[in-house]
Amino acid sequence: MKTTIIFFLSMIISVNSFGQEKKQYTDEIKGISVSPPRFVGDELNIGDTKTGGNVELINYLNKNIQYPENSLLWGKEGREVIQYVVTSNGRLTDFHVLNSISPEMDQEAIRVLKTTDRMWNPGLNNGKPVDMENEISLAFKLYEGTDHVKEFLVQAKHYFAKGGKKLFFKGDMKSALRCYKKVVSYMPYDKCSLLSRGICKFDLGDKEGACQDWNRVKSLGGFESNSYLNNFCEFKGYSEMMSMLQDKE
Question: Which contacts of 194-198 are long-range, i.e. CB under 8 A and separated by 24 or more positions?
Answer without folding.
Answer: 194/220, 195/223, 195/225, 196/163, 196/164, 196/167, 198/232
